[in-house]
Amino acid sequence: MTKIRDTALTGIVVVSLVLTGCATNAGSGDASAAPANSGKLTWWGWTPDTPVAEQYIAAFNREYPDIKVTYKNFENVDFRTSLTPALDSGKGPDVFDLSPAGGSADEWGSYAIDVAPLAKETLGSDWESKFGASYAKQLTDSKGRQVALPLGGMAAGFIWVNQNILQEAGAAIPTDYNSWVTTCKKVTAIGKACLTMGAGGADTFPTEMYHSIANSVDPSYFIKAATGRAKWNDPEGIQVLQIFKKMKEDGIIASNVLDGGQYPLANNSFMKGDTAMVQMGFWYTQYAGANSCKNAMEAAGVSNPTCFVQLPAEFPDVAGKGKGSAYFGEVDYGLAINAESPNIAAAKTFVAWMTMSKNGQQNVANALDLLPSLQGVTPDWSTLTLANNAVQKPLIEKLIADSTATTQSRQWQATKETLDAMVVAIQQVLDPTVKMSIEDIAAGQQKSSKTSTVGVG
Amino acid sequence: MHGLGETSAMTVTTTGGGSSLLATLRAPRRGGQNRRRVIHLLPGGLAWILPGFIISVGLIYYSIFYAGYLSFFEWGGGRRPMIPVGAKNYLQILGDPIFWSAIFNTIIYFVAVFTAQVIGGVLFAAAMHSRIFLANIYKIIIVIPVVVAPATLAPAHIQVWQTDGTFNHILEGLGLGFFTQGWIGQSTTSLLVVTLVGCWGSVGFGFILYYAGMAQIDPEMLEAARIDGAGNLRILFSIVVPNLKAITVSLAILNFITALKLFDSVWLLTQGGPAHSSEFLGTMIYAETAGTSRNLGLATAMSVILIIIAISVSVIIQLRARERAPVS
Description:
Chain A: Keywords: Cell membrane, Lipoprotein, Membrane, Palmitate, Signal. Chain A: This is Carbohydrate ABC transporter substrate-binding protein. Chain A: It holds the Pfam family SBP_bac_1. Chain A: It comes from Candidatus Lumbricidiphila eiseniae. The complex is a heterodimer of chains A (about 450) and B (about 325). Chain A is built from 17 helices and ten strands. By secondary structure, chain A is an alpha/beta fold. Chain A folds into two domains: about 40-155 and about 330-380, D-Maltodextrin-Binding Protein, domain 2 (3-Layer(aba) Sandwich); about 160-325 and about 390-450, Periplasmic binding protein-like II (D-Maltodextrin-Binding Protein, domain 2), CATH 3.40.190.10. In chain A, the strands form two sheets. Chain A has a six-stranded mixed beta sheet with strand order 2-1-3-9-4-10. Chain A is globular. Chain A starts with a helix and ends in a 9-residue tail after the last helix. Chain B is built from 15 helices and two strands. With about 325 residues, chain B is mainly alpha-helical. Classes of the chains: A alpha/beta (about 450), B mainly alpha (about 325). The interface of A and B includes residues 11 and 420 of A.
């Protein structure tokens, strides 16, 4: 019996040790560590694409060769689903992307160190004013902690067009609803789709189309409704959904809109050259580059691609009120440092260089992925080669100027519940088998939404 | 007459001998020798299984009870504060039409997949026992959907069912172009796609069990039926299928549990959409755990409800399927 008891006790001890080991594998970071010149880092993000991130890291390594950074890119939804359990289990990355949208600063900010001291040390006591308008503020949590530093901003509220397809179809870039219908008829006549959009699934990309249409109806409506000063089933909201429905019925929005999400469905369709237009934000500028467009096309499944000329275009005046969409934007994402990271010192060096150094931000500007968060930095066009410089450069320069001047936020002032309810309403409107009236759909949207208090007052 | 499971249990019970723990435990305790054997075998075996026992039972049941505890809180996970909310999470779930839609979808999925699995499994198994030409090739074809991961198959299924997909092309080829539609992207058809994909992937599993079960049926019984003039169909439905009742009951329980916790194929195909039309409890729990709106208390409350339904229905199915004792 003694032997048996000993065996049993040994088993319990072994199991306990295993469980203890599992429970204590989380690292314990030193938030006060001074920036270091060597170390190893992992960086997780849904953006930028891996080739762009590798450009950033290569430039960083020219100044800090002893800090090895490994980047891992995720699809949007996958990022959320992967990051949360990784951080919870103590196996998260050293540095991770953090968006200002949907309460992300509170969602993941608690896993991050307060980077305000790092910013103050790097840029001085007026460090917040060195960034673009309210970029730093958008990355604070509800307790006022600076949980990430802005890498760059973005804007949306416009469309991208494939000039090659339009030229082949003899079509013009649309400026209002009727010209959009005309353009789409010409495009579909040559066997291409007109506007690709992925509104299926759970992602919130379709809200950008809603926001754009809403801006055409009334530029102040979206933010008013998001912050409780208007309702989603007000006449403006109903008109937005009516326009949405009509766009599909009139062949502007492709019939496969609910087959999947914006990524990969719409992105791949546009990048394959199957579709004339797509609604994407400023980050899509990167694919205007002579090399990055090839990478994007290959990623979409095109072998030996030849770049087409993609151009930004104003969102058409779909409401017939003489205006398209005002651009809306905010900080796209910041870089947060995992408080559990054993490499906080090296992570501080990396984040400070990426977000607050002239060279790092020049790198961001040149990637044409984001609007640089540090004021006064613009792309160095002498180093950039576009698919068609003469055609694309003037339009992209205008896009940068207009995007930088944006005053309307994108998702920062919309709650997760509001964005999710909007996606469901859009899906119901676009689904031909849903027999609900537009009014009922809008009422359901209002009921499921939750007012935001962010940036109000 | 008894089913496969009962036959196996009886074999174990009657095998006896000192090597079977179960047999030893069930043996009548007539004398001191048997008691000593029980004492000798029980603790020794227990010591061997103890580590695994503690890990599996300890971790699993700890997790279940901890989930039950969490279900009374509103908690975003990690370092966020845990706010006690009483039964609010349960009331919220029970008042949520999406939850009831998910329950309805689960029932539809279970009934359809179970039916397809039983009918398809029995028919394929019977056919394979009939010495048909190239039987091994057919077996491989039937079983492949079972062994390939849903994540591998999902892109192919999307290709089949999307608006510009294979199925619509086939319909157009057959002159049924008027019937083409966006099968994945419609509220009325998204559940159908998920269910059909489930049926397609489950028939092979039914086939494996029924094929093995049919091999256990006494050939003399079949021969006797044949001598009595029974035809193939009569033998299949009056002799073979009743003998496979235990397998059918097991499949019913397994299918119901699968339907309750269904997640991977749904998420890969539709993410529960559009507009929650193909939502299941598994996708709801996942969305609540890792999606844009995160409340682990709500997610665990849904998990607790799932466990309660799974256990309750499993017990009911087993009780209903139990053969009644013959009246003396």
